[in-house]
Amino acid sequence: MTRQRLDGKVTLITGGTGGLGTAIVELFAREGARLVITDVAEGPQRDLSHRIEARGAEVVAARLDVSSARE
Question: Which of 18, 55, 62, 63 lies 20 to 30 A from 69 at CA?
Answer without folding.
Answer: 18
